[in-house]
Write a structure and sequence with these properties.
Elements lengths: L4 H4 L5 E10 L5 E7 L12 E8 L11 E11 L1 H4 L4 E2 L6 E12 L2 E6 L4 E9 L2 E10 L4 H5 L7
Length: 155
Amino acid sequence: MCVSAEESEGRGPERPVAILLHRLSDGSEHVDLFIGPVDGRNVKDDERAVLSWRCATRPDALPIGGVTAIERIADHRGRYLRLTTPTDLSDNRGHVTPLRRGVGRGAATIAIAWADGGHSRWRFDESAGRATLTALSTAEPRSADSEENPATRRS
């Protein structure tokens, strides 16, 4: 994949991002991270063009500087970027639950604006056959209570 300097540094076309919890039929579970194509094009529901990783931990829950192991898995269908409800998978592959969705920009470094108002910035690294994701920054969504109620607002 050829990536421009702009795309590698958290800029470039918008790309949908989704994090799903995948519970397998044997009872084990892991987190899947899905990111739309680098060129920002819209992926059809049945098109297998969504970049996909299995993550050791939820990447959006990492503290700044936190690192998690990731494993590149086969490209998935576009529908996984748009899931809004828990879904049983065919062929006894388990069950997926959407955890978070947003829009990102970039490739090697991706800046994500989550649909809930939070933000993340991550760096993907791969060396010696080991792939990791590092949290560069994170901001949780503001609660409606903290903005509307002066007694709970932080100064």
